[in-house]
């Protein structure tokens, strides 16, 4: 039964991702929006549904730390795992508009979370600010996308049946993603428990990745279909939604607000901010995430997860592992990023000289 539930969850995720990509793409084209904007708005908000469900349930059941950790951890997973998987399938395009608008918005709301959480609590006013930040981002993204879209012929406006079909596809896709993620997480947790893994390790691995499965599935399917902008928009938009909606809405709606563990402010949120900055560097060096850069992001996700497991269990290997990360892997990544940046600057300068000639 557990294996059947695992397989059923995988099937539901694939079917839901396919329906969501098809429906969102159709609605976006009808509204005159680019795949990047569709990914940053419709798809990003929709794929944050599992995180919202987990956070609300965690707060109501008296586990607010899980709610905050789920949202912040999902943002890190979105960049280091979701975008990495999409880039390995097909290099992802970001565009300069992501650097000028979307990433600064994601970075701003992440910094706002840290500042608002310094007192150890997200109250109703804090939640209202986060929700307003998300609403402002979505409105600005749609307005920017419509202005950037070229004039389309007015001879054949979208017909209502097509809009209705695409809207139903989005709703059905979201439902399948949520159900599939729940089935997969529950069955995988049961299998992991049977293998003797602790609840802590299961929570750090199965649950954190499980709530990101809708984003992973949607990004991979979009990449296979050739929508190389949708995954970047989905990741950045989901990161805004995970803070503005997943944390902001419960903080605004629930009388007690949401408690913020000091460890989140000290470690998890700074890692999330660093991952956001790293994505900006990757996109700046070519307006896309290549397969090599995707592999580097995936390697850092594995290292980040391993660090969490070792730190939580106070393993003897934590010291040597941290030293390797700090004194070897991190400098190597910085040097590689600097090399990509220099190559991009020289390539841009060469292109400029060719145009002037």
Could you explain how this protein is built, in words?
This protein is mainly alpha-helical and 357 residues long. It has helices spanning 2-31, 35-47, 49-60, 64-89, 96-116, 124-148, 160-194, 199-210, 213-224, 230-244, 248-253, 262-284, 291-313, 318-356; strands at 92-93, 121-122, 258-259, 288-289. It is built from 14 helices and four strands. It has a two-stranded antiparallel sheet with strand order 1-4. It has a two-stranded antiparallel sheet with strand order 2-3. The radius of gyration is 20 Å and the shape is globular.
Compute the number of structural domains.
1
How many distinct helices? 14
Major sheet, described briefly? 2 strands, antiparallel
Instruction: Give the strand content.
Output: under 5%
Features:
A middle domain of Talin 1; two-stranded antiparallel sheet; single chain; 4 strands; 357 residues; mainly alpha
Summarize the structure.
This protein is mostly helical and 357 residues long. 82% of the residues lie in helices and 2% in strands. Helix 5 packs antiparallel against helix 12 (262-284).
List the helices and strands and how they pair.
Blueprint: H1 2-31, H2 35-47, H3 49-60, H4 64-89, E1 92-93, H5 96-116, E2 121-122, H6 124-148, H7 160-194, H8 199-210, H9 213-224, H10 230-244, H11 248-253, E3 258-259, H12 262-284, E4 288-289, H13 291-313, H14 318-356
Antiparallel strand pairs: 1-4, 2-3
